């Protein structure tokens, strides 16, 4: 069983906040609804779309807003989204060391795979796991599903939100929070990750080279 590192996608591997926010705001603006910004918008990111719209625009047809968002986002999701600096190199280095690499995201699997492919990350990943009807993070289900899909043993959950930290801990993994994404360092600190860093760079030294184990 390969040791497996599970990553969140948006805000962890990909700098995608601008495109997510643009699509979210587009849908609300078209519906004549107020736009959450700043901390209010950051609090929504990482939640399921229906919950995002339910929180941002109570007493509206959230499913209609979700569908409108998906149409707009699929057409614009790579307008400004790019991997964070050093991410492709980090993933390649981890694979060379013998780690399996999986994504566990709140996105649907098909959308996440499309985004990972468009940004050049898909060939560097062993599996991309969307929530797809599973309980969303902070529940551990999507993290566990990602680990099972590669037949691995989870060693670390890497994410940029408190939801990622709680999901990783619930799945029994070491938790590594990166503060270059959605949640601020003080928010992440309150979730008590095992490691809190401004970038992913220290992850290589932290994980090292895994010791061989019988499967």
UniProtKB/TrEMBL annotation:
<dbReference type="InterPro" id="IPR023214">
    <property type="entry name" value="HAD_sf"/>
</dbReference>
<dbReference type="GO" id="GO:0006281">
    <property type="term" value="P:DNA repair"/>
</dbReference>
<dbReference type="GO" id="GO:0008967">
    <property type="term" value="F:phosphoglycolate phosphatase activity"/>
</dbReference>
<protein>
    <submittedName>
        <fullName>HAD family hydrolase</fullName>
    </submittedName>
</protein>
<keyword id="KW-0378">Hydrolase</keyword>
<dbReference type="InterPro" id="IPR006439">
    <property type="entry name" value="HAD-SF_hydro_IA"/>
</dbReference>
<dbReference type="InterPro" id="IPR036412">
    <property type="entry name" value="HAD-like_sf"/>
</dbReference>
<dbReference type="Pfam" id="PF13419">
    <property type="entry name" value="HAD_2"/>
</dbReference>
<dbReference type="GO" id="GO:0005829">
    <property type="term" value="C:cytosol"/>
</dbReference>
<dbReference type="InterPro" id="IPR050155">
    <property type="entry name" value="HAD-like_hydrolase_sf"/>
</dbReference>
<dbReference type="InterPro" id="IPR041492">
    <property type="entry name" value="HAD_2"/>
</dbReference>
<dbReference type="InterPro" id="IPR023198">
    <property type="entry name" value="PGP-like_dom2"/>
</dbReference>
């Amino acid at each position: 069983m390969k040791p497996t590192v599970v990553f969140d996608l948006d805000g962890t591997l990909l700098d995608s906040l601008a495109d997510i926010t643009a699509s979210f705001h587009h849908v609300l603006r078209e519906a004549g609804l107020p736009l959450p910004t700043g901390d209010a918008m950051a609090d929504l990111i990482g939640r399921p779309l229906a919950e995002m719209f339910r929180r941002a625009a109570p007493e509206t047809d959230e499913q209609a807003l979700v569908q409108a968002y998906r149409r707009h986002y699929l057409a614009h999701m790579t307008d400004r989204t790019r991997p964070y600096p050093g991410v492709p190199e980090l993933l390649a280095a981890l694979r060379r060391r013998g780690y399996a690499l999986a994504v566990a995201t709140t996105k649907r699997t098909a959308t996440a795979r499309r985004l990972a492919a468009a940004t050049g990350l898909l060939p560097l990943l062993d599996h991309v796991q969307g929530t797809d009807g599973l309980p969303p993070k902070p529940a551990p289900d999507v993290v566990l599903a990602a680990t099972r899909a590669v037949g691995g043993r989870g060693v670390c959950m890497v994410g940029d939100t408190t939801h990622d930290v709680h999901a990783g801990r619930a799945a029994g993994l070491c938790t590594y929070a990166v503060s270059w994404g959605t949640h601020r360092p003080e928010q992440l600190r309150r979730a008590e990750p095992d490691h809190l860093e401004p970038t992913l760079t220290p992850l290589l030294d932290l994980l090292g080279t895994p010791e061989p184990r019988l499967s």
